[in-house]
Amino acid sequence: MKNHIGPYRIYILLFLLVIITAEIIWSWRKDRSAYDVKETFANLAVFVGFQFSKYLFAGYQLSILGFFARLAPLKMPHNGWIFAFTFIAADFIYYWFHRVSHSWKPLWAFHLIHHSAMHMNLTAAYRLNWFSALVSPLFFVPVALLGMPIDYIVIAYVLNLAYQFFLHTEVVGTLGVVEKVMDTPSSHRVHHGSNPIYIDKNFGGVFIIWDRLFGTYQPETEKVNYGLTTGFLSYNPFKLVCHGFVYWFKPASSPNLPVNSTPVLEGSPRN
């Protein structure tokens, strides 16, 4: 599969460059200030590191899924129905993976970087932790145990993340009836908001129906304030990647942490 995908990587990168450039032009012409030069370069630096990490951890990810797939009592065939089921199951799992990443300190350590962007634009989509591949395959073990083909699981997750890239923009407004079923730029802007009304909302990847079912849906009703609730973090990609882990190991009694009767994550929408 790698040999088939390889020749298209340059075209994918060119496509991303074109639409990001188009968004920059839109932001400039509409005076929307969706881009900050320093933050954009920080996003791109994180993106480069994340691409490298995918090669570094690919074997580990496939080994985890392969191990549990061998334990599955049944092996599902390759066909359209099985792929559709795998895609929906992967999106359901992503919802819970994402939701837990906002409420459990160890997973917030990986996810914090994504919410540290102060501007919503397409480059912010790749503000992803370089080490997230260490934990993400563990959440997809149930699909492997159901006997879903490993390549289907991988493709479903890749498509899920690819779809989410297009959600990180202010170019697209609300989409009417689509908002009831699919995650949209409007729904995802809410997710990135530090406004009190937007706290811990809209965790869906492709479908927003999980949020509607489990009580975490919130429509975009007021201007979104982006970034961590603690404010600006850094332009340094290494600090952005590592800050969540530094916070993870801070003593609970640290004066820099808010005191509350319930767990609170630094900079998170729960803060």
TrEMBL record:
The keyword Transcription regulation does not apply. It is found in: Endomembrane system. One of its GO terms (molecular function) is glyceryl-ether monooxygenase activity. Keywords: Lipid metabolism, Membrane, Oxidoreductase, Transmembrane, Transmembrane helix. Residues 83-216 form the Fatty acid hydroxylase domain. GO terms for biological process: lipid biosynthetic process; membrane lipid metabolic process. This is Fatty acid hydroxylase family protein. It comes from Mucilaginibacter gracilis. The lineage of its organism: Bacteria, Pseudomonadati, Bacteroidota, Sphingobacteriia, Sphingobacteriales.
